[in-house]
Amino acid sequence: MIGDWLDIGSVNQITPGNARTLPVRGGEEIAIFRTLGGEFHALVNRCPHKHGPLSQGIVHGGVVTCPLHNWNISLKTGEALGEDKGCVPVIPLKIDAGRIFLLRSAVMGQLAA
Ligand code: FES
After folding, report:
1. What's residue 49's pLDDT?
2. Does the Cβ of 68 fall within 6 Å of ligand 1?
3. Residue 29 C-alpha to ligand 1 middle, in angstroms?
4. Which of 4, 24, 69, 94 is most buried, most CB within 10 Å of its CB?
5. CA 101, CA 63: separation in Å to the nearest integer?
6. Cα torsion for 7, 60, 20, 46, to the nearest 10°?
7. Tell me, what's the pLDDT at 2?
8. From the first residue on, what is the mean pLDDT of each consecutive set of 10 residues in the chain (113 residues)?
9. Ligand 1 within 6 A of 71 CB?
10. Does the CB atom of residue 66 touch ligand 1 within 6 A?
């Protein structure tokens, strides 16, 4: 059902290898990434280490490297890779007709309690 998904705009607003952020009123900012391979992923924009802004990190493969201390975070699972431990919430995302949609209930789940 389309009502379950939030249309956040065209895929063209994010160039490959980059990210943009989506503020959530009263909640966590969400980062939407586009990989060089053309995949899209949405994560809460807060590194599991010390809350660095993942949207400003470097995207390579299916991974973003945090700009603060270089932790590598999987864009698919939100988990820190290698020796590092931690996980950031992933927001389900789909592409339809050139538009990016986020699962509404997952976005709402990021609102502060
Ligand atoms: S805050 Fe991201 S690696 Fe430290």
Report:
1. 98
2. yes
3. 16
4. 24
5. 21
6. 100
7. 56
8. 85 97 93 97 98 98 97 98 97 97 92 64
9. yes
10. yes
